[in-house]
Amino acid sequence: MRRVRRAYYNKFSKYYDRFVALHSRDTQGSARRFLADRLPVENGASVLDLCTGTASLLSHLQAKVGRDGQVVGVDFSHGMLKVAREKTRSFPNVHLVEADAGRLPFAASTFDAVTCSHAFYELKGETQGRALREIVRVVKARGTFLMMEHDVPRNALVRALFYLRLASMGAVRAIAFLRHEQEFLERYFGSVEKVAPPGGRSKVMICRKH
């Protein structure tokens, strides 16, 4: 199954940016800028972007941490990272790593903050819990995890299609997670706050480490 999912994302990488923009109605990337602006970090900080995909968030993170900072994007899909490398060639302080979200190859307390944009719901089974434990491990004391996801659509038909897509990927656990996300995230973090980016089609969960 892991090989199948990796092959799926390798193919999907060619269309991923257009899919996210269509679903969120955010063709200009304002939601990702909103996410980066919410990061409580200063110039010179280190930020990890989990499930970085095609690196759509990394330019905003790079602008946030400045020339003295470091941004690391992690994804398990070679295809996604191939697209990401083309986008980030001009950013000397952006680094890409092929790795599993549930088994991060970083020492404890490495990053000032961790982000994840439009990807966490798609983590399967126990990978969600392992990924959260890894986030808590690699983020520094009083660090922050920002998770941006598509909000559950209000339209009944679109909402049904949204759930169908998750179920078709085998992400049944993700459906349970999104229905109780606040409670779930509070198991791992000292405080959790939900805020809405412009457009109303996405949401950002601001999670602060104990």
What does this structure look like?
- This protein is an alpha/beta fold and 210 residues long.
- The chain has a single domain, classed as Rossmann fold (3-Layer(aba) Sandwich).
- Helices cover 40% and strands 22% of the residues.
- The chain is built from 9 helices and 7 strands; from the N terminus they run αααβαβαββαβαααββ.
- It has a 7-stranded mixed beta sheet with strand order 3-2-1-4-5-7-6.
- Strand 4, helix 6 and strand 5 form a beta-alpha-beta unit.
- The longest helix has 13 residues.
- The model has no long low-confidence stretch (mean pLDDT 83).
The whole-number mean of residue pLDDT values reads 83
- CATH domain topology: Rossmann fold
Structural domain tally? 1
Instruction: Give the helix proportion (percent range).
Output: 40-55%
Put simply, the count of helices is 9
Rg, please?
16 Å
Calculate the terminal CA-CA distance, rounded to whole Å. Answer: 35 Å
Could you give me the name of the CATH homologous superfamily? Vaccinia Virus protein VP39
Structural class: alpha/beta
- What is the architecture at the second tier of CATH? 3-Layer(aba) Sandwich
Fold topology:
Blueprint: H1 2-12, H2 16-24, H3 30-37, E1 46-50, H4 58-65, E2 70-75, H5 78-88, E3 94-98, E4 111-117, H6 127-138, E5 139-150, H7 156-168, H8 172-179, H9 181-185, E6 191-195, E7 202-208
Parallel strand pairs: 1-2, 1-4, 2-3, 4-5
Antiparallel strand pairs: 5-7, 6-7
